[in-house]
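Q: I'm a student working through a structural biology exercise. My instructor gave each of us a protein and asked us to get a predicted structure, then write a short paragraph describing it. Mine is PTS sugar transporter. I'm not confident about reading structure output yet, so if you can add a plain explanation after the tokens, that would really help. Here is the sequence I was given:
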Amino acid sequence: MQDSLLQAILLGLLTALIVADWLTGTNNISRPLISSVFVGIIMGDLQTGIIMGATLELAFIGAITIGASRPPDLVSGGILGTAFAIATGKGAEFALTLAFPIAALFLIVDNLLTLLVLPMVARKADKYATDGEIKKAANMHIFGWLVVKSLPRAIFVTLAFYLGSPFMEKILNQIPAFIQTGISIAAGIMPALGFAILLQMILKKEVVVFFIMGFALYSYLHVPVLGISIFAACIAFILVDISSQIDKKTVTQGGDVDDDF
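A: Happy to help. First, here is the predicted structure for PTS sugar transporter. I'll explain a few features afterward.
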């Protein structure tokens, strides 16, 4: 019980610090690929944390905010999904099945805080800025992050892990084998869904040929992913260089025309 309490507190502190990603600039420490590594260290199973971080990252790879459309909260989902999966010994498949419901649940809390509390903080910051009190305006920015983004997530993760982990093992032991098989199949589908969401946003007719090229290299020529990445980097460099040369030539020709006048 004491170990669970200590782990719950450490996970809460990790959550509170990780969301500084939004305060200091996007450095992606809030992504499951990184956060799950720290969860693995806290839970005493670094290898599993790394594996589940990579698995969850594939599932959440298309989870980005676009306008008013907000994806499930990948911070709480990634941390709790990984923590529960390590604590129960069920692995990456179970992490995936937990991550999305948890992330969707906290999204409701985050939306309420963002709609009800954050505007009050923003108005206070605007007042300080209007009055020329820049330091106080900056402090309101930090205060808003703390009360809306950091502390609520930390409290949610701490309580959810401490209260949930003892019951989770009992529940999992009662799950029939055919349901666990279904969970494994669903876990295999989720990364593909993550890629599909990402492709839906970026795939255009101008770049589809490169997608087909990568697919052909992997499927028919059996080039490893690292080799495909090297090819892609070289192609990107060549295209950028050609585009740069064309731009320079266009600017030079335009300058010659201007000189004639």
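A: Here are two points you could use in your paragraph. The CA atoms of residues 61 and 194 lie 5 Å apart. Residues 257-261 have pLDDT under 50 and may be disordered. It's a good idea to check both against the output above yourself.
Q: Great, thank you!
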